[in-house]
Structure formats: C-alpha cells, structure tokens
Amino acid sequence: MKKKQLINREVSWLHFNARVLQEARDESNPLLERLRFIGIYSNNRDEFFRVRVATLRRLRELRKDKPEYLSYDPSKVLKDIRSIIDEQEKAYLEIYHQIVEQLHHVGIHFIDHKTLNEDQGLEVVRYFRKEVHPHLFPIMLSGLSDAINLRDNSIYLAVILRNSAGIKDDNFALVKVPTSRVSRFYILPHTNEEYNVMLLDDVIRYNLKEIFLPFGYDVYDAYSIKFTRDAELDIDNDISKSFIEIMAESLKQRKKGVPVRFIYDQEMPEVLLTKLLKKFKISKNDILIGGYKYHNFRDYMSFPEIGGDNLWSESLPPMRHPDLPPYSSIFDVIRSKDIILHYPYQTFSHVIDLLREASLDPKVRSIKMTLYRAARDSKVINALVNAARNGKSVTVFLELQARFDEKANIIWSEKLHEEGVKIIKTIPGLKVHSKLLLIRRKEEGKNVYYTNISTGNYNESTARVYADDSLFTSNEAIGLEVGQMFQLFEAPYSPPEFKELLVSPYSVRSHFIKLLNAEIRNQKAGKPAWVILKLNSLVDEKLVSKLYQASRAGVKIQIICRGICVLIPGVPGLSENIEVISIVDRFLEHSRVYIFANAGKPLYYISSADWMVRNLDNRFEVACPIKDKSIQQELMDMIQIQLSDNCKARLINHSKVNVYKSKENGEANKRSQSLIYRYLERKHTQ
User: Per-residue pLDDT tens for 373-405?
Assistant: First the structure.
C-alpha cells in the first residue's frame, strides 16, 4: 500500500489529543469539566513522549546503523511531532488561561505566592509547616552528579539562592514538589461562595525562607523543571531469574531512563538554564522545551470537587441491569439468558456480586480470571481472595507487562499467591490483554460454565469513566473455549482449535479479512453488504488495505474510531464508501464492536482487540460472537445513536483536522453519551 494512502500513526494520535483539547475549549461543557480535560490532555501528552517519542528516538539511532531497516524516517516524524505539539501548546495555554479567568468570575480564584494578603500568608505558612515541609528534601545543585536520580514526570523547583548583603556567593538548589504525598491544590479558608486555590508549587515558593534562611540565603527565585523519561522496559533474558525479578529490575531502570523531554519555565534566567543543562548533560536539541510557569497539568484530572453543580457535568449514576435485581442469584439469571452490561451507564458492581456469590456457592468448583489493570483498592481481587479462603480453586492470569501498572501487578500477584490463588506465569513478549472470567459450577452432576467476556478491564475505578461492553453467558461452547484459553496461557505454543471465539495471535486478523471478503462477494451478488466497526485504534495496514478494497467494491463502511486512525476516508476510487467519526466526550469510548451484514444475517462481535499489529500479532486477545438477538439489537441501537451524534462526533482524516459533524437543517442536538444513558434508562423502566 502506498504511504500517501495512510496517515502517520503518531500524527493521527496527536489529532486525537487535539480532540481532547477541543473538549477543554468547548464552552458547552461545565467549567470544571473543561479544566479536567486540560488534565487529560496533559496526561496523554506525557505518556506519548514516554512511549511513542521514546520509541522514535530509539528508531532514529537504529536507522543510522541500518538505514534499510525502516520504511520511514524517524527524524522527520519527530520534527513533525515537535511542530504539531508547539502549535497545540499555544492553544493549550490560551484555553487554560480562559478557563481560569472564567472561574474567577464564578468565585474560584487561583492565587499565587505573590498575591497573598497577610492573613492568607499566615495560613499558608501554617499549612506548609504541618503538611508540606516534612516531605521536602532539597538537593544542592553543586552536589548533584547528574540527573539520573531525578524522578520521571515529577515537578522540581530550580531555586536561585542569594544573600541580600552579598556576604555569600549565589547558590542553586532543587526542590521536588511532593505531589504524590500532598494534594497539588491547597484550598485556603473560604466561604460557600468564594474559593481561593493555590498550587502546591506556590505554597513552596512562598515558604522557601523556611528551608534556606538558616543557611544564610534570604532572596529566592524558583522556576519549574520536569523530566520525561523513556518508559519502554528493557527486559533482561537471564534465565536464572524469575520473571517477577526481571520485571522489578526493569522497573528500577525505567526510573533512570534516558530523558526524552526536558521542560523548563521559559522565564528562567539563562545562567540557571545553562547550569542545569551542563549538570544534566542535555544539549539544546529536540528534547528541550521552554514552557509555562507550571507543569504537570495532569493533576487537574483530580481537581477538588468545589463550586456549584453548574460547574460539573450532570450526574449520571450507574444503573443496575433490569434483569439483575439485588438479593437474587446471578447464576439463575445467566443460566436462562445472556446478559450484556454497558459501563459506565450500568454498574460494574454486578461483577463483584457475581464473584461474591461464586465464592460462597457450594456448587462452584473453580474460578478463572484474567487481570490486566486492577483498581488501587481492588474489590475484584478481594473477592478472589475470599473465594480462595472459602476453598474454591482460583486461578488468575495477572499481566505483569501492563504498561505503567507493572509495579502494582507484581504486588497483587504476590498477595494472591500468598492467599492460595494459582498465578499463571506471564509470557515474556506476549501480553494477555483479553478480559475473561470463567466460573465452573456443578449442577446435577454436570459441569456448567458461566462466562464473562469484556471489552474493558476488571477495574471498578475505570468502569466509572470507560465506556465498555461486558457479556455474561452460560453458553457451553463459549465456556469450554474460554477454559481452553487458560490452558493456552500455560502452553502458548500448542494452540487448540477455536470454533466460537476469535483468538489473537492466531485468527482475529484472518477471520476479519475473511468476513470482509464475504461482504465484497455479497455486494457483487446484490446481497446486503455493509460493515460497522467501533474501536479505539485502526492501524493494521493489512486490514486497512482490505477495507479500501471493500470500499472500491461498493461496500458501505461506517467506523467509529476514538483514537489513532491511519485510514483516509472519502477518497474517490479508494475509500469513498467509508465514513470515519471519532467521539470524545465525558466518558472514554473504549468498547470494540464489529458488525458485518452477512447477506442479511448480521454477525456481531465484541472484543478486547483493536485493529493494531500489537493486538493481532503480539497479544492474546479474544473476539466473542454475540448470538442473542435482543442483545444484537441493543448493540445496534447504541451504535446508531453514536453514528447520529452531532455534538461530540468529529470527522476523521478529512481535509481539515477534527471538524465537527454538521447538523442537518433544524436538526436537534444529539449527544450520544447522554442519549445512550436515556436509552438504557428507558429499558430499565419497561
């Protein structure tokens, strides 16, 4: 396929993050929700540098030695990235200052160390002494050998220390802002109508005399700096070590990864910047970014819940599924019919209830589960521990290679093992990303399998903000094949034959290509032929090529793609029959739903897998067929609501970036996430 027929994946990701920034700009969103989107944008960008920019920098070095190794120039991509991010940075700060100004008019005031009155100053000193100072351990710049021990993505204040009488030479120090220990936001004593908010950085700036006055310095200037480090793990292949030991050592090395970005307050004097760059051995190349006075805006994702209700989004409390009333057996319901949950519209607590029931039910013999990202205080893991304590056979595959959750998963793995849970070893280089729960129950002398297959993690925290689909079924064939998946995790090089499930890295891509080929044949034969895809990322070139082929054959293809999309829709002779939209709203669209017309007998699948090489070739993923007609209709209804969105849907990869889908003349606003909530709410009351 010609490269001009594809959007670069990194550029496409930056376009996605621009959609997040659009939500921060959108004045139809409540003010503090807009501030939260500022935080999401910042957090996304940090991870992009830690992973994608870090990878490109590695590839750039590789290409110097092996120029034929890559079909593109990483240096050019890095240059394009820098150009786009510089433009986004301007918009980002402009939007932030607009929000701060608008918050001022509704009684939420951001104040700094220079604007405190006397009473406020006394409060800030009291707070600093009690809550902040115990967590500060300054470093004199002269005693620092290099930057290797400075923490990734943490804020430091680079401080110039002076003596006003001139009896001491100027000195320089670094102070880490302890946001992992103390809230980034200090709310001064306030009335119900007015709030004064001070960032922790400025609390420290105001109190630098408390730290440095005893050493003879009484004049201070402080400027923020921050490192972003390469977060890719270099895995040691020492066979004498356990994989947990190898991962733990790799995580220690991550903390000392090569800097891929160094951000500094652009108001910093040249003398201090020069000293820092020399000390940290950083040259003025593409990792150096002059920025704003404050860094780590990701903390705004957790901004305190202050102010009136009008500053926050409408409350949409998760609903119970109408067929799963409280104080009733979930097994009885699933035995009679398939159930699908839609998070966060419906409550994740049904999964906890099922595990709790399974842990106490004398008929339950075993529980098997995959875990990729667990909540910090995981009720799922507590339920599994309780089941083991109640004598159930509990088996867990806990993925130690889940990026940025490796440390937590090592701790969870050790806890589960101590409680008698069987832990299936992680497979180096091959992640288990599928979301599977299998409960075996003895009923009238027979094994009956209760299965849950989800598009999202078993994580009660993210289930409140990630939009996912989760199927519960007692279908025996599906249950047996999920059982085979757990066998496969232990013997990954002897795959069984799957007839119901599509399984990566064996059959997901090939089966979807087969289904697309069938749509092409049906179109030529005059039979119903269309495709609807909902996913997070569309990157795999083989599948993109097949989508182009289907479009050229006349197959209508509608795609809802939240994030990266390398496909270019609407190109005459190539993709004129393809429409791609992206929906970015208060909930993170995370479900994967694949629907094929199949000559009038549509096929439905939900999956943990996006159409990316890593999902199709380097992970264990599952796509599960949806057979229940009522669930199929429910999925189609929800997809059609999203396809009709004219408030939060953007057209992807057209001539202009992130153009909102236009309304027809006189058409009412259709905000799909709100409409889906109302749709499910009506189903609950029928």
Answer: 877 788 999 999 999 999 999 999 887 665 555
Contacts with 664 (C-beta within 8 Å, 6 or more apart), sequence order: none
DSSP string, 475-515: -HHHHHHHHHHHHHHHSTTS----SS-EEETTTHHHHHHHH
Distances (CA, A) of 62 to 65, 249, 682: 6, 25, 57
Cβ-contact 559, 580 below 8 angstroms:
yes
Shared domain check, 509 and 494: no
Handedness of CA 677, 634, 378, 434 (dihedral sign): negative
**Dihedrals phi, psi of 444, to nearest 5 degrees:** 50, 45
Structure tokens at 409: 């998963």
Tell which residue, 192, 206, 210, has the closest CA to residue 117. Answer: 206
433 shares a domain with 407: yes
Same domain, 522 and 433: no
Reported residue count of the chain is 686
Extract the tokens encoding 340. 């699908």
**Domain end position, chosen among 435, 470, 500:** 500
Regions of the chain with pLDDT less than 70: 1-3, 63-71, 146-148, 191-192, 231-258, 284-286, 400-409, 686
Catalytic residue set: 433
What CATH number does residue 144 fall under? 3.30.1840.10
Helix (H) or strand (E) holding 558: strand 556-561
Q: Which of 248, 286, 240, 302 is nearest to 86 (CA)?
A: 286
Provide the number of structural domains found in the chain.
3
- Cβ-in-10-Å burial (0-12, 13-18, 19+) of 662 comes to exposed
pLDDT of residue 243: 41
Burial of 240 (C-beta count, 10 Å sphere; 0-12/13-18/19+):
exposed
Percent of the chain with pLDDT over 70: 91
Query: What is the distance of C-alpha 657 from the center of its chain?
Result: 22
